[in-house]
Amino acid sequence: MEEQSIRVEESRSRKEKPNSDELIFGRHFTDHMFVMDYTEGLGWHNASIVPYQNLSISPAAMVFHYGQSVFEGLKAFRGQNGDIQLFRPKKNVQRLNRSNERLVIPPIDEDFGLEAIKRLVEMDKDWVPDAEGTSLYIRPFIISNEPYLGVAPSHHFKFVIILSPVGSYYKEGIDPVKIAVENKYVRAVKGGTGEAKTGGNYASALKAQEIVEKEGYSQVLWLDGVEKKYIEEVGSMNVFFKINGEVVTPVLNGSILSGITRDSVIQLLKHWDVPVSERRISMEEVYEAHQNGTLEEAFGSGTAAVISPIGELYWEGHHLTINNGKTGEISKKVYDTITGIQYGKIEDSFNWLVKVGKKTEVKQKSLKKSITSLS
Ligand SMILES: *Cc1c(COP(=O)(O)O)cnc(C)c1O
């Protein structure tokens, strides 16, 4: 089977770019998008970069009814020397394939997927904002688009990548949030889809978030779906606690999403010789630590905010104030280091950055493999 490259159709008109200080997350989109189709028997094909436009999809497309879809989220940054760089993008492509596996979506060629991201960002590189803390958010996703109402895996899919310039997450400096521990609803259970980045997980989380927002909390802390005892995630971020000098994050147990920021935080802490452990941690333990004064810091981690310190936890009638509601030392250090690397202010000693615009021609390989690995 022959190799494929990316067909490019340039947009004839260019949109006006929003000002850096008016960027709202996920509201503005660039001039181009990447699309690729999957048809059983043919594999992934028709890889193209085309003008940003609406998709034409049958109302019977399976994604609308049974939610067979996956997505990713990563960012491109304008470095100090003007280079456009991605943060650990290969990890996102690999995770996309793990999500695919769980949702019975055929895998993509990972090198080709990364190449698609790089080519698209290169094409719309003028959209990467340059103000402090801004970036270009990259949203790859796959939907099942076979028109069929039967409950079965689809035979047709569409892979799309869109780009959205985003403003600084922290306009007035990194700022701790109030979090309510969720005792009624659960995000995911072991054996479910919590490990996959799929829209359904988000749909089922909206209710709890809506309730706590009305009560003045910005997010919920999710507990395990069986005993509602062990901590899993915070909102759509991974979560860390610093207790008596040790940083603890819930071990990946099958219902927690494996965050790339989470992995980066762990690597940094190990590099700094800060004790860090991935293990089960109960809300009871966090409460005890708060009561005896050893709960030093708590923070969420994810691509959007990088680090989101937790200033207060509400649990069963108790308001637990953490670090006087201020950003902790480790939270700040991790935040400054990761963002420093992303914007090229700190040496990338972990080799996390991938530059965009280096001329490499990666063609889509092994179409056959992606077909046979389906069966
Ligand atoms: C995407 C996501 C995260 C964070 O992952 P990053 O790779 O760090 O952005 C954490 N939890 C959930 C549920 C997510 O969907």
UniProtKB/TrEMBL annotation:
SUPFAM superfamilies: D-aminoacid aminotransferase-like PLP-dependent enzymes. It is an enzyme of class 2 (transferase). Pfam families: Aminotran_4. GO terms for molecular function: L-isoleucine-2-oxoglutarate transaminase activity; L-leucine-2-oxoglutarate transaminase activity; L-valine-2-oxoglutarate transaminase activity. The modification N6-(pyridoxal phosphate)lysine is found at K197. InterPro entries: Aminotrans_IV, Aminotrans_IV_CS, Aminotransferase-like, B_amino_transII, BCAT-like_C, BCAT-like_N, BCAT_family. Belongs to the class-IV pyridoxal-phosphate-dependent aminotransferase family. This is Branched-chain-amino-acid aminotransferase.
